[in-house]
Amino acid sequence: MTHAALPEGVKHALAKFSVGPVLRWGSLAFLTVAIFLVTWHVVSDEAGLPYRYWARYVASLERKLRSMFVFTPGRLIGIGQFCVAFVILAGALLFDLPMWWALLVVTAIAPTIYIEAERRKRVALIEDQLDSFMLALANALKSTPSIGAAFSSVVSVVEDPIRQEVDLAIKEMKVGSTLDQALLHMAGRVGSRQLDSALSAILIGQKIGGNLPKVLENTSHTLREMKRLDGVIRTKTADGRMQMWVIGAMPLVFIVGLGTMWPGYFEPLTQSVTGYVLIAGISVCWVVALVIARKVLAVDI
């Protein structure tokens, strides 16, 4: 059948069909895959600088996760970030994705921020359990003279996350570590000043002798009082912290609002060196103001 003998509907469809979009999308797809493969090859080269940074970053993630008894491979998190960044870049190239650079920044820093937030939550939980742990340890020492046996008996009455730390310290002592080494490792993993004080009381009380259960009971009372004072301070400074975050967020709200209502309002700042200098100076002042405000409100007891 010749082209002239085709029905009118088919002729109309053929007239609309063009290989231009197909070639364009195909080229973009091949280009995207090529960029992905080249980037992966560069990163996977063990002799290259990117691979060394990659290995250092993965090791840092795994070290932070293992200190919280989370054994997710850091390499898995890094590969996930790489894939998300690739999707964002592909979206920016293919679909003109707005604010793609901001999404890349979030992808780069989100895991680190999330892990640090989880670590802080875990430290806060340990500090909340610390006075009860010290009191339980003091009661255990009243029935057994061995501090190692007292630690073993306390494991069954405390809850996670402090139970995980105590259990690991006991396992370290069973494989040859001294009490000092096990407790120092525990303090290094957690990174809490209150825990450092409590463990120091245990070690000093053991070395100098005396009534160790009484020392631990006094330490427990002190920790409980410190926690109460910390709660009072947080209550008193809650309004100030809220004002700090509201005032800190106002510039961003104004920028987004003015940019939405009057598109191009801030374009003069991005068309000259003076504008970029002003943006940099304002940003630095904004960050410094937030840091100073946080230091003022961070009352240490």
UniProtKB/TrEMBL annotation:
Localization, UniProt: Cell membrane
Organism listed in the record: Labilithrix luteola
Keywords noted in UniProt: Cell membrane, Membrane, Transmembrane, Transmembrane helix
Transmembrane segments: 22-43, 76-94, 100-117, 244-262, 274-293
Gene3D superfamilies tied to this protein: Type II secretion system (T2SS), domain F
Location of the Type II secretion system protein GspF domain: 133-256
InterPro entries linked: T2SS_GspF_dom (IPR018076), T2SS_GspF_sf (IPR042094)
One GO location term (cellular component): plasma membrane
Pfam family, one: T2SSF
Keyword check for Cell membrane: yes
Protein name: Flp pilus assembly protein TadB
Membrane topology value: Multi-pass membrane protein
Superkingdom of the organism of origin: Bacteria
